[in-house]
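Notes on consecutive records. When two proteins share a document, each keeps its own sequence and its own token line. Never mix them. Below: protein one.
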Amino acid sequence: MIKTDILIIGAGPTGLFAVFEAGLLKLKCHLIDALPQAGGQCAEIYPKKPIYDIPGFPEILAGDLVNNLMEQIKSFQPGFTLGERAETIKKLDDGTFVVTTNKGTEHHAPIVAIAGGLGSFEPRKPLLDNLSKYEDNGVAYMIKDPEVYRNKRVVIAGGGDSALDWSIFLADIASEVTLIHRRNEFRGALDSVEKVQELKNQGKLNLITPAEIIGLNGENKLESVLVRKISEAKEEMFLEVDHFIPLFGLSPKLGPIGDWGLEIEKNAIKVDTFDYQTNIPGIYAIGDVNTYPGKLKLILCGFHEATLMCQSAFQKIHPDKKYVMKYTTVGGVSGFDGTKKEAPKAVVKKIE
């Protein structure tokens, strides 16, 4: 049985940053993730996707963010159980928990932090009769390597951040990028909407709204898409393309965690914003997996939630100790500039 102070379910950015915050408090962490590597969706689905809202980084690729987080927590030596899904949880008489994976690995900890992102998920697909014919043959639901689209004709459909961000990113890689959305208004960040409009004005991106894809064509691979304008005239046009990427989001599922007796609302775990604890004392939920009034599904919000969760966890694990947070600049963290540094020492002043 694997024993630790905080058992983190989900090794995405929020879960990884929780390791750092726990390490500052001298709490050990172990992470469980169904994926074969750490990083969550950032590593598995879009490692080359640029992220623009990480403080201090005007732009950073999702995969690079994961690499930086892994380097940041290296000195705290977290444990990992990868390629296994958290299946069951049992609360012991002393208030601690045993979490068992689908492969039978048991983990024991006084604190469980669920950082499972969107949970298990599958892409939302457009309702097109012959869609399956072109899957992985011109149609893709996520972008792992942008170089696949270099000098290619690409059509992206969607109105959220992913559709906007990838349209902007591929404008400098593909020979032609066309963004199609059912509405004139977009759901993404205003700055991204403005960048798309600017690229359109510069002739670097085609924007067709309101419109939708109603057909796919091609002998052995995708060769063109049929677009219909959403208007009284219902004008239709064929666009010759090499790739069609519908980015309509993901259909999340909590999986086995949904059966743990936690309070669920709209497929997310309800928490108290004081410390992001669930209705079961000792079990927390941080990042995209949780919900509360005013919730924003942003990585930086997950970082904040992880920080407060660790403070609460420290108090539960050490109820007889008080502490005062001090500056995280007192010590150093190994590996940032290639030199060996000590982990932060005087970050937390403990008062017995």
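Protein two starts on the next line and is unrelated to protein one.
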Amino acid sequence: MSNLVRWEDPFLMMERFMDDFMRPIARTPLWNLPSLWEAPFPGDNLAIDLYETEDALHVEAAMPGVRPEEIEIEEHDGLLTIRSRHEEESAYEKGRWQVRERYAGAWQRTVRLPVEVKGKKAEAVLEDGVLHITLPKAHPEKRKVNRIQVKLPKFNLPKLGKREKKIKVK
């Protein structure tokens, strides 16, 4: 029996490993890859519309069947987070059959707001399965422009005596 071991080039082995590892990702279209900036959350699929008016940001999210007490909205450091968890249970009997159904779902969405807002004055209304959030813009005070003048430093030159005034040029 021999103790021979097949030797492979380590660079070739690494290249083959990376090809096998990256193949599923390479086949996925770029728009389906998760964003590196968003935290992975299994229910991060809440579709929203965000639009801006002159004095506020407006967010609309479709949340059919969700009750207002199941919705949590937070605004912190320019990030708006909308979370919801909905559970529903129903049961009915028909003859000798008894049917029980349960449904549970969780949604979350975090977006960076394009402008600074007044989070304490925000309003949210759930109407016909659509959540409307109004975030008033925080208009920064107009800053006063202070002009600063540039001055030249004063130089003190030594006083010239009688000797220094007469220079002979040859």
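For the record: Helices lie at 10-27, 162-165.
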